[in-house]
Amino acid sequence: MAAEQKRVAMTGNEAVAHGMRQIDPDVVAAYPITPQTDIVQFFASFVSNGQVKTELATVESEHSAMSATVGASMAGARAMTATSSQGLALMWEILHITSSYRAPIVMPVVNRALSGPINIHCDHSDTMGSLTTGWIQIYAESAQEAYDNLIQAVRIAEHPDVLLPVMVCQDGFITSHGIENLNLLPDEVVKEFVGEYKPEHYLLNLENPITVGPLALQDSYTEVKYQQAKAMENAKQVILDIAAEYEKISGRKYGLFEAYKMEDAERAIVVLSSTAGTAKAVVDNLRAKGEKVGLLKPRVLRPFPAKELVDALSSVQAIAIMDRAETFSTAGGQLFVEIRSAFYESDKRPLMKNYIFGLGGRDTTTREISRVYADLAAALEKGRVDELITHLDVRE
Amino acid sequence: MTNSKGYKKIPVGGIITEAGNSAKYKTGDWRSFKPIWNEEGCVHCLMCWVFCPDNAIKTEDGKMVGINYDHCKGCGICARECPRKEKALQMVKEE
Amino acid sequence: MSNLLEIRWHARGGQGAKTASTLLAESSMAAGKYVQGFPEYGPERMGAPIKAYNRIGDAPITIHSNVESPDVVMVLDPTLVGPVDVTEGLKPDGIIIINTTLSPEEAKQKLGSDEFKVATVDASGISTECIGRDIPNTPMMGALLKLVEILPFDEFLARMREDLSVKFRGRENIVEGNIEAMRRAFEEVKLA
């Protein structure tokens, strides 16, 4: 039975802050950066109002924020931080340490373009740059999803088969600062769902003292890394299990991705986060005209659900994969190369095309998305893709 | 040291779950010279014990009783610091 | 999709367009609507032209881009008409509501188009009289509620009183001034 929920209108950041309030972590260490700032600002007011018992550390940089969060986590605390863009970049070396220490830290990331040129708006260059850091990555289309993902992330991170940190991503300004409807679960339901954090080993356990972060050279580094890879592999099933459990309390269904009107789709767009919502409106519109189009919105990028994505996409004839970040590889965006590679073993290989879009917050409307579906129709007619990588809406 | 444990046995996160396990790490085989203790010449001043960087001087009731060759790396500091003219500790080549 | 109402606000930084879009979203949500309210973020400076948006509908809203073809345009500062293309993308049967002392006919002439419905209200004058400051956002919301069916005006005022009482805790005169300003604009707005 889903719990009675409170219907609210709030920004994605406010929703995430409320999720953090309900989780009531032991420690939050953070440093402000646009557009993440008001997550921690809202949360700080919950701390000062005594609504949470959290120890809030306002540190002097994101490097310190991540370091303090790791320290707290290894000490045995449920610890969180939050960041965006340059902040995530500054955390870089500690991101790897977090995942290798198997610190189950949950971090909301409000996606923002990396400098330079300096820009405060949304794209995914920040988290795309951290795909190899060993963090689980979950992306949200809306404020509701950002909130729901955050709560599930705690359970995913702390699951004994996983023990990996999780980034809970949402689009900067677009959902972080836009007000929209969502349903908040009752506090006690969230508290019960996340439960108490009970680490097996932690530094403040005086009965069983441990050493954290010892040297591991040629003889054991490989095994430690392999453990991480195995944990990431395990995360796939755990994410699905936790989603099923979450559906019971919320009534909202989550998976590794969302397939929207894909059953008989001939053309499909693959795109992350808020743009997927805009694309849904285009799908509805084109479907009303009888066009067989669909949308696939990856939710989880790490672990990468390669097989599942291929299964979901292989009945489609033409696919546009839209990346909201440049890789400068000149061979396509990150999502594109990963999905295309996943198709290598597949008997069915749909036409596939890459779009780089929405950089630095460039607005992507139903018009641009309609154009992408039209491009796919043209490619199908010709039986080939002429331009593999298109930078959408770029001026000559 | 060769760590022969597989990924399933190594503690998750590469942590060390056993306190003080460096005692198990035998550094004695690093030696090319080893200290020999001459008990008759020893006045039990324990300067060797003070200076030994590996805590390899064994003592009992405030007296030097021998050398822990499992952990002595053969650095020779004990022999150098021994104040006796005839040296109660002397370095000899490992065979 | 036909029951989705899209609004674009034009104002200068500091006139409260973002707050208006937020308050409108919140009060519409309370009336059971699906809503969005968001500004077009940029270098926010007092006096610089800014835009904010609302989407209000009876079904969940998934579009996450700026509003390109609004049903309603709200202009909080009459001096923006000209320097800013305030009717850009406005639907042919759409309505533009301008804070000005001009009559709607005069405003229509100034816009130089017959395509849209034009309404005017002296929101700055009303605001100055009721609140003591030229903050035209709340009276403009009163005018909007008169001309566009979103939620019953009484229900809207009750919600606004709640919201403003939190925002201006202990400053009852400001809350009541805003309510009065909305009521007056609701009465005084004129449609050509």
Estimate the strand proportion of chain A. 15-25%
Strand order of the largest sheet of chain C: 2-3-1-4-5-6-7
Helical fraction of chain C equals 25-40%
Radius of gyration of chain C: 15 Å
Radius of gyration of chain A: 21 Å
Helix count of chain C equals 6
Q: What's the rounded overall pLDDT mean of chain A? A: 97
Please identify which CATH superfamily of the largest domain in chain A we are dealing with: Thiamin diphosphate (ThDP)-binding fold, Pyr/PP domains
Number of domain units of chain C: 1
Write the H/E string of chain C, N to C.
EHEEEEHEHHHHE
What is the ordering of alpha helices and beta strands of chain A?
A: EHEHEHEHHEHEHEEHHEEHEEHEHEHE
Unreliable segments of chain A (pLDDT under 50, ≥5 consecutive)?
none
**CATH homologous superfamily identity of chain C:** Pyruvate-ferredoxin oxidoreductase, PFOR, domain III
Mean pLDDT of chain C: 93
Task: Note the overall shape of chain A.
Answer: globular
Uncertain stretches of 5 or more adjacent residues of chain C: none
Q: Based on the structure given, which CATH architecture of chain C is correct?
A: 3-Layer(aba) Sandwich
What is the distance, rounded to the nearest whole angstrom, between the alpha carbons of the first and last residues of chain A? 55 Å
Q: CATH top level of the largest domain in chain A?
A: Alpha Beta
